[in-house]
């Protein structure tokens, strides 16, 4: 599978990454800021914006995008229906499930709310990645 790196349309990968990262910034700071803070038990606080809280998610989004592109090309996804199936499988099977699993720990006071907010972001993100990869393949 790793040999697919040479076949990737890197412009589409970078565009999909940028879209995914920007979606995350908007998701957690604009669209769902208050519920996100509630899920963390910090509804009356300003969340920190140290570099790790920007660079870390950016790197994770890049890894998710590249891994998705490798799978996308390996599986030869070439239709919208196949891209949707891929998005739902990867979205629910890995991204949402892993997000909820991470949320279920003593440090997250509202794990289900956190899982819904963060998991739905990743599901929307993988769908967006897939559409961009498909259109630009």
UniProtKB/TrEMBL annotation:
<dbReference type="Pfam" id="PF08570">
    <property type="entry name" value="DUF1761"/>
</dbReference>
<keyword id="KW-1133">Transmembrane helix</keyword>
<feature type="transmembrane region" description="Helical">
    <location>
        <begin position="12"/>
        <end position="32"/>
    </location>
</feature>
<protein>
    <recommendedName>
        <fullName>DUF1761 domain-containing protein</fullName>
    </recommendedName>
</protein>
<dbReference type="InterPro" id="IPR013879">
    <property type="entry name" value="DUF1761"/>
</dbReference>
<feature type="transmembrane region" description="Helical">
    <location>
        <begin position="112"/>
        <end position="136"/>
    </location>
</feature>
<feature type="transmembrane region" description="Helical">
    <location>
        <begin position="52"/>
        <end position="75"/>
    </location>
</feature>
<feature type="transmembrane region" description="Helical">
    <location>
        <begin position="82"/>
        <end position="100"/>
    </location>
</feature>
<keyword id="KW-0472">Membrane</keyword>
<keyword id="KW-0812">Transmembrane</keyword>
């Amino acid at each position: 599978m790793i040999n697919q790196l040479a076949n990737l349309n890197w412009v589409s990968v970078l565009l999909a990454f940028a879209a995914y990262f920007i979606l995350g910034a908007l998701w957690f700071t604009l669209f769902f800021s208050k519920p996100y803070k509630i899920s963390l038990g910090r509804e009356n606080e300003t969340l920190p914006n140290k570099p790790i809280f920007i660079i870390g998610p950016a790197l994770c989004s890049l890894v998710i995008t590249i891994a998705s592109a490798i799978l996308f090309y390996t599986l030869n996804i070439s239709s919208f229906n196949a891209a949707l199936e891929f998005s739902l499988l990867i979205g629910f099977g890995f991204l949402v499930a892993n997000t909820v699993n991470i949320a279920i720990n003593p440090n997250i006071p509202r794990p289900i709310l956190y899982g819904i907010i963060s998991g739905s972001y990743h599901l929307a993100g993988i769908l967006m990645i897939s559409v961009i990869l498909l259109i630009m393949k």
